[in-house]
């Protein structure tokens, strides 16, 4: 039998070893698990990043609210404007008070719808007066500006998610001695301040107003509602105060 040459056997063994190494390298993945995991971004970091304009931001910026301006007096009666605001935009304007009476009814019916539409179009108080209803138009714009000022206060400078302060004015409630009108400042649904922007004046009324209003203001903040006791000796003022306070809370949705 023919014997193979020793050098030939060595060459064959070397070739077999090289082939084995090449085969192993071809089966090894392009990158090992450690390098792959290092290259991929962490899943937790991706989960923490919220998309721009996501639902969290929409809830903070698009929350609807209703704000009522102060009652602006005219020779024929008060004008008071209420605004509905959503996402920083006025979506509705209405006059919750306007002059009434024979001639006033006609002028109110003429002016108020036009003024409401003008507010939605301009989104501010720079609107034209309605010809033939100058007093009503002027009162409307003053009350409108008051409401816009309240909106501006409520939307300024708060951190996202924190309760924003807003100011709401209740309806003017008449008494035999004059009107009572209450303004409340709320943080969330909590009353942080209450004040009477209108109260009976003159003679004995000054004394009763000075007696009753500070106590009623404190009671409103303490109770967080209109369920407060009347002040003895100032029944008319107390009753009207509570009605106007309830009106403000109704507007605030609380």
Could you characterize the architecture of this molecule?
The protein is an alpha+beta fold. It is built from eight helices and eight strands, in the order H-H-H-H-E-E-E-E-H-H-E-E-E-E-H-H. The chain has helices at 6-27, 33-39, 43-48, 55-61, 102-122, 134-155, 204-223, 235-252; strands at residues 65-68, 72-74, 77-86, 89-97, 165-169, 173-175, 178-187, 190-198. Strands 1, 2, 3 and 4 form a four-stranded antiparallel sheet that branches. Strands 5, 6, 7 and 8 form a four-stranded antiparallel sheet that branches. A hairpin with a 2-residue loop joins strand 2 (72-74) and strand 3 (77-86). The longest helix is centred in the first third of the chain and has 22 residues, at 6-27. The radius of gyration is 37 Å and the shape is flat. The model is unreliable at 21-25, 27-63 and 157-163 (pLDDT under 50).
Summarize this structure as a short list of keywords or feature phrases.
254 residues, alpha+beta, four-stranded antiparallel β-sheet, 8 helices, 8 strands, 48% helix, 21% strand, flat
So what's the overall shape? flat
- The class by helix and strand makeup works out as alpha+beta
Q: Please provide the count of β strands.
A: 8
Mean pLDDT: 77
Q: Over the alpha carbons, how many angstroms does the gyration radius reach?
A: 37 Å
Oligomer: single chain
H/E series: HHHHEEEEHHEEEEHH
Which range does the strand content fall in? 15-25%
The amount of helix comes to 40-55%
Low-confidence stretches: 21-25, 27-63, 157-163
- How far from one another are the termini? 110 Å
**H/I helix tally:** 8
Main sheet? 4 strands, antiparallel
């Amino acid at each position: 039998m023919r014997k193979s040459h020793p050098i030939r056997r060595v060459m064959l063994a070397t070739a077999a070893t090289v082939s084995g190494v090449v085969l192993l390298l071809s089966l090894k993945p392009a990158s090992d698990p450690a390098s792959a995991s290092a290259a991929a971004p962490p899943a937790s970091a991706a989960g923490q990043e919220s998309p721009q304009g996501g639902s969290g931001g929409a809830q903070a910026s698009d929350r609807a609210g209703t704000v009522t301006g102060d009652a602006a007096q005219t020779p024929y009666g008060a004008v008071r404007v209420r605004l509905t605001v959503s996402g920083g935009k006025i979506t509705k304007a209405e006059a919750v008070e306007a002059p009434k009476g024979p001639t006033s009814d006609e002028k109110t019916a003429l002016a108020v719808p036009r003024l409401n539409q003008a507010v939605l179009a301009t989104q501010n108080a720079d609107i034209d007066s309605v010809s033939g209803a100058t007093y009503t138009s002027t009162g409307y714009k003053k009350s409108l500006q008051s409401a816009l000022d309240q909106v501006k206060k409520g939307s300024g400078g708060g951190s996202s998610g924190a309760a924003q302060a807003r100011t709401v004015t209740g309806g003017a409630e008449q008494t035999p001695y004059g009107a009572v009108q209450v303004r409340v400042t709320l943080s969330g649904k909590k009353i942080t301040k209450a004040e009477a922007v209108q109260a009976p004046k003159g003679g004995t009324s000054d004394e009763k107003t000075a007696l009753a209003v500070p106590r009623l203001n404190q009671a409103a903040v303490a109770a967080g509602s209109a369920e407060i006791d009347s002040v003895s000796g100032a029944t008319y003022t107390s009753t009207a105060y509570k009605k106007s306070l309830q009106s403000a809370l109704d507007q605030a949705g609380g």
